[in-house]
Design brief:
The protein is an all-alpha fold and about 120 residues long. The chain contains two helices and no strands. The mean pLDDT is about 80.
Length: about 120
């Protein structure tokens, strides 16, 4: 029986390795395909720019941290549609109640052990 267990263990290890290698190949091939699509798009864009006499400009995503911070602040101060700040008129008064000390509570739950 030990020989059968060893054979099954080695077979399962081999199948696991093959599965991991196949997953790695799929990942690498998908990344290569994505890079090829981007390179083709860039080549077509550059070719069209040269054909029409325009300068070839890079793809750039500019972002200004100060601008984005201001956008977040404006969204925070939005009106009824957004999550804005509450005006003092929106605050509701609450009644004050006494806080009971835990030491004063006696045997309210008989399942608890005594102190």
């Amino acid at each position: 029986m030990s020989g059968l267990n060893q054979a099954l263990a080695s077979l399962s290890r081999l199948l696991l390795r093959l599965l991991l290698v196949a997953a790695a190949l799929v990942l690498v091939l998908s990344l290569l395909a994505a890079m090829a699509v981007l390179a083709l798009a860039w080549t077509l864009r550059a070719g069209w720019a040269r054909l029409t006499g325009r300068p070839v400009t890079p793809w750039v995503r500019r972002f200004d941290l100060g601008q984005q911070f201001g956008d977040v602040l404006r969204r925070g101060q939005a009106g009824p549609g957004g999550a804005g700040r509450h005006a003092p008129a929106d605050v509701t008064d609450v009644e004050v109640r006494e806080i009971i000390d835990v030491g004063e509570v006696r045997d309210s739950n008989p399942r608890l052990p005594p102190r």
